[in-house]
Amino acid sequence: MPQPVLELRHLETLLALDECGNLSKAAARLYLTQSALSHQLKALERHYGTILLVKNVRPVRFTAAGTRLLDLARSVLPQVADAERELARLAGGGGGPLRVAVQCHNCFDWLMPAMDAFRPLWPGVELDIISGFVADPLPLVERADAELAVVHDEPPARPLLSFSPLFRYESVALMSPTHPLAAKPWLEAADFQDQTLITYPVPDEMLDVMKHCLVPAGVNPRRRTAELTVAILQLVASGRGIAALPAWTIGHYIARGYVVSRPIGRGGLRCDLYAATRRAGAEVAYIREFITLTRSLCLTELQGVSAL
Amino acid sequence: MPQPVLELRHLETLLALDECGNLSKAAARLYLTQSALSHQLKALERHYGTILLVKNVRPVRFTAAGTRLLDLARSVLPQVADAERELARLAGGGGGPLRVAVQCHNCFDWLMPAMDAFRPLWPGVELDIISGFVADPLPLVERADAELAVVHDEPPARPLLSFSPLFRYESVALMSPTHPLAAKPWLEAADFQDQTLITYPVPDEMLDVMKHCLVPAGVNPRRRTAELTVAILQLVASGRGIAALPAWTIGHYIARGYVVSRPIGRGGLRCDLYAATRRAGAEVAYIREFITLTRSLCLTELQGVSAL
DNA sequence: GAAAATAATGAGTTTGAATCATTATGCCCG
DNA sequence: CGGGCATAATGATTCAAACTCATTATTTTC
Questions:
Q1: Are A264 and A188 in a shared domain?
Q2: Which of A137, A282, B283, B308 is 20 to 30 Å from the Cα of B122, by its Cα?
Q3: Do residues A249 and A184 both lie within one domain?
Q4: What's the confidence (pLDDT) of residue B4?
Q5: Within 13 Å of residue A21, how many CA atoms lie on the same side as its CB?
Q6: Rounded to two decimals, what is the model's pTM?
Q7: DSSP-derived 3-state class of residue A112
Q8: Residue A39 CB closer than 7 angstroms to strand C?
């Protein structure tokens, strides 16, 4: 007598499917394989005796039946989330500090909205950013001066820490539309050799292009620095040099034609962000939710971002 | 990153727990073992870091956290059920005939309310009772003159049919409060020997006491028949004989002291009801729901009824 | 205080949900 | 039109969650 074939898991899948538009992306977002989702869908469709979505079209299109289930998901999953938050409160885990240490300038672009979304859900949590960017924030977390650190790439395992993937973004090269390099479909490391590279005034370690592309290739262009993203874009637009920034920072500058962007290297330059917490912290409901909420916000809102 | 530990299954469990008042009963209702529920609860409680219910008290008492989850269940599960009904409609399985064949008189007591509850959920289903009680309704189902038959005990497997347990009820002996047998804590078959047994005018096959108790024991009391349950009770109350009826039929007669009831045999006389459908019919959403709905209504509303 | 109900526990088993490795399908573009 | 890329389907295999079984512990009842 198997009453409920349907489980919350399936509703999560449908939601992801709707947001991502295809099985593979949705699977990545759910930390599952494309195969898993395919099997899942097939089982559901067999059970209900009707197709739930048309997959050979981009993005996937939900049938009437699929839409009905999607609506169910939209109604039910938030209720579940609410209940679980309240349970955390009832279990005495509804409040506490959440100090976030961030390495990179640009992260503030998404960190602020994420914090804004988080605050009303967990009014009992004291949310702070550990200001002044820290070269290596991991010791902060280890000695409990921060609950969470955002770091690049997955660091080697540490006994006290646990790492959760946040997302992968693309760093793109920026130049004025009239710049000679704008003619190329993508840039190689060598293309930077005779250029002026405009960056934030931070160590090369913390600059994606330098760390992952130019330093390995032994390229060392002229440099110029600016504190603010707008200032960098200003300099680029006026032809004073080229820059490399995460794709998400520059959406409307591109749209307005002030600057153009080109991938760095054939497949583009991908950078991975992780959230580090102490292992004990990874159990705390509000820290977990901060991570998942941030991830999910970034994946849906930010340009050029994909699941990790 | 296992987000949802909670699944619909758990919500079903909580609901059953609330209705049944203890793990064992709830487990039976869900077709699971008591052990399964115990493990389930423990896992949930470990995950949320708080106790959900106090089990060493009858009925179990939900904690604040438990109540919150129970509320979630009460909100979410009906939404899921609604969605699934609509899916069935969208899949083209929202309508069709549902002709129910019933063996026993008393079954109408619960069949009517069940049908009343069912109708608004499936307006497209043509619900009928195959009237005139049929001695053996199984052939009706086999040759598709009925979609569902209610039968006693689990019949031997038949190639075309599938049987679903409905519930178990107790048949009790009824007598006037002043009757000598009322002094006994329970009745043996032999006690019936010199009595007048008042029954419906149907073959012994279809009378629980006869079939499962007196006939096996070779006891054959005087007989008197009446068509209606009230008439039987009237005769019993006025000392004209004793009767045996399902415990559920007689609640308020007992309460008012007109008659008293005694178990038949040490542990009482238990009878099992099953729903028979054609194997193909067991797949049809509305037939499945009719069965589960009926079962669940009877289990919660009827006296002396337990899960099978 | 014994018997009956009920719950907990840990080991063992089953099942279903995932992955892996591969094949199929559709789409774009030269 | 055919090769290459992105995406989905498939079936075998793996793995772990969830269940059962057998037993012990606890509580209730008479």
A1: yes
A2: B308
A3: yes
A4: 57
A5: 6
A6: 0.90
A7: helix
A8: yes
More confident site: A27 or A261:
A27
> Residue B260 and residue B59: Cα distance in Å, rounded?
27
Return the closest-CA partner of residue A152 out of A284, A308, A30.
A308
Of A50, A75, A292, the CB nearest to B91: A50
Q: Tokens standing for A84?
A: 């679980």
Question: Per the domain annotation, does B2 fall within a domain?
Answer: no
Do B222 and B84 lie in one domain? The reply is: no
What is the rounded (10 degree) CA torsion for A23, A24, A30, A33?
110
Whether A263 and A227 map to the same domain: the answer is yes
Q: Which of A217-221, A272-276, B41-45 has the lowest mean pLDDT?
A: A217-221
Contact between A1 and B91 using a beta-carbon 8 Å cutoff: no
pLDDT in tens, B248-259: 888 777 767 788
Residues 6 or more apart whose Cβ sits within 8 Å of residue B120: none
On whether any CB of chain A is under 8 Å from the CB of B164, the answer is yes
Assess if residue A175 is contained within a domain.
Answer: yes
Between CA A143 and CA B295 the distance in angstroms is 58
Instruction: Report the nucleotide nearest the CA of residue B36, measured to C1'.
Output: D19
Q: How far apart are CA A76 and CA B74, in angstroms?
A: 12
CA–CA distance from A262 to each of A188, A210, B9, B186 (Å)? 10, 16, 50, 90
Q: Which of B233, B258, B251 lies closest to B243, judged by CA?
A: B233
Domain extent, residue A123, equals 92-165+271-301
Rounded to a whole number of angstroms, the CA Rg of chain B reads 22
- The encoded tokens of residue B182 equal 């009322």
Q: What is the mean pLDDT of residues B131-137?
A: 73
Nearest alpha-carbon partner for A60 in A34, A31, A78: A34
Question: Within an 8 Å CB–CB cutoff, is residue A9 touching chain B?
Answer: yes
Q: Give the domain CATH number at A14.
A: 1.10.10.10
The letter for the amino acid at B46 is R
- Quick one: which H or E segment has residue A217? helix A215-217
| Residue type at position B199 | T
Number of domains in chain A: 3
Q: What is the CATH number of the domain that holds A291?
A: 3.40.190.10
- pLDDT tens-digit series, residues A224-255: 999 888 899 889 999 899 999 998 888 777 76
pLDDT tens string A37-52: 999 999 999 999 999 9
